[in-house]
Amino acid sequence: MPVSGCMDREALEATARALAAPGKGILAADESTPTMGKRLAQLGLPNEPGLRREFRETLFTAPGMEQHISGVILFDETLRQAASDGRGMAEILESQGVIPGIKVDGGAHPMDDAPGEKLTAGLNDLAERCAEYYELGARFDKWRAVITVGEGLPTSPCVQANADALADYARISQEAGLVPIVEPEVLMDGTHSIGRCYEVTECTLNRVFSALADRGVHLPGILLKPNMVISAIDAANCAGVDEVASETLRCLKATVPADVPGIMFLSGGQSEVEATAHLNTMNAQGGGPWELSFSYGRALQQSALQTWGGDAANCAAAQAVFVQRARLNGAARYGRYAAGMESEWTNR
Ligand code: 13P
Fold first, then answer.
1. How many CB atoms sit inside 10 A of residue 4's CB?
2. How many angstroms separate the CA atoms of 269 and 45, rounded?
3. Which is the catalytic residue, given 225, 247, 272, 291?
4. Distance, CA 6 to ligand 1 centroid (Å)?
5. 5 alpha carbon to ligand 1 midpoint, in Å?
6. How far is the CA of 21 from the centre of ligand 1 (A)?
7. Which residues of the chain have pLDDT under 70?
8. pLDDT per residue as tens digits for the range 315-325
9. Is-above-0.90 flag for pTM?
10. Which of 79, 153, 157, 276 is the most buried (most CB within 10 A)?
11. Is 175 in the active site?
C-alpha cells in the first residue's frame, strides 16, 4: 500500500512500461452505466447489471487476448462485480497477466460561464477513491477531459481548467500508486478541418504538459491518451490515412516530452478499421520517442458486441472477433498491419 504523499517512482514506471509493452495495448471497457445502456439499446437489450457483466466477462476471458491486451480500464461497477465463477473481475484479468485499471473521473459536466463547453468533475474525494481502488487491485486509472471544437470554441479558460484538473488528478493518482492515463480528448464532432484539429490539439497538449510540470507529475510514470489529429466527422474534406498519421506525429513531437513512455490513442468515433490503419501508419512512418499504442473502446468492442448480441450462445464467437481485432491492433503496433489481414483468422 503506497504511503500517502509519497511516490514510488520505480513501481509507477514499471507499470507504465508494462501497459505500453511492444505488440500490446489497452482495452477501454469503462463505459459508464448510461453509456453502456446506449450500446445495449443498439441491440434491443435492457441496461441490466447482469448483461453488462456478461458482455465484459466475455471479453476478459477471451482465450489469447492477453497476447495483445496489456491492461483493461474498468468502470467502478465492474471492478466490484463477481464473474460467473465467483472470482472478481480484477482477479480474472490478473490471472492472465493483464493489468486492471479504473476510470476515476466523474464525467464531463457543463462548465460555468462557458456555454457549450464542459469540465470534468471528480477531484473532491479522489485521493480516498484511489486508495480504495488500489486495494481492489487497480494499478492504473483514467481521467477524460473533453474539448469541443466549434464556432469560437474551445475557449482558453475551458482548455486551462481541464488541463489543471488532469494535472491534479495525475498527481493524486501517482501518490496513490496508480499510473494515471491522462486523456485530453479533442472531440471529432462537427465540421472542422484536420488543420483546426491540429491547432486545438497542440494548444491543449501544451497546456496539459505545462500543468503536469507545475504539479511535479513524474512523466515516466504516466501514459497519454490523446485523440489523433483528424478531420471532424462532418468535415467537407476528409484527410486520408497518411495525412492523419503524419499530422498526428508532427503534433505529438511538438508537444509531448520524450520521457512519457507511451501514447495510447482513443478511437473517438473512428471505425475499427480506420483506428487500426491510422495507428499502423504512424508506426510504419517511424513513430516517435514514445511507444505508440491503443486504448480503444468502440474500435475494439463494436464487432464483438454485435456478434454477442446478448446471447450466451454467441460468447465464443464474440471472443474470437474481439481477439482478432486486438491481434490486428497488435500488428499495427509494429506497422505490420495490412487490410488483407482483416479476413485472415488465426484464432478460430
Ligand atoms: P473510444 O476509443 O471509444 O473513444 O473510447 C476510449 C475511451 O476510453 C474514451 O474515454
1. 12
2. 22
3. 225
4. 30
5. 30
6. 20
7. 1, 3-5, 346-348
8. 999 999 999 99
9. yes
10. 276
11. no
Mark whether 183 is an active-site residue.
yes
Alpha carbons 46 and 34: distance in angstroms, whole number: 11
Tell me what pLDDT residue 1 has. 65
Question: Rounded CA gap, 299 and 65, in Å?
Answer: 15
In angstroms, the CA 333 to CA 20 distance is: 10
- Residue 182 has φ and ψ, to the nearest 5°, of -95, 110
Cell for 197? 484539429
Of all protein residues, the one whose alpha carbon is nearest to atom 5 of ligand 1 is: 297
Closest atom of ligand 1 relative to the 73 alpha carbon = 8
What is the distance between the alpha carbons of residues 197 and 248, in angstroms, rounded to a whole number? 10
Give the pLDDT confidence of 13-26 residue by residue, as tens digits: 999 999 999 999 99
Catalytic residue among 13, 57, 175, 183: 183
Ligand 1, residues at Cβ distance < 6 Å:
28, 144, 183, 266-268, 296-299
Quick one: CA dihedral 72, 76, 80, 84, positive or negative?
negative
Tell me: cis bond preceding 154? Omega within 30 of 0 counts: yes
> What are the phi and psi torsion angles at 211 (to 5°)?
-65, -40
State the Cα–Cα distance between residues 311 and 10, nearest whole angstrom.
Answer: 44
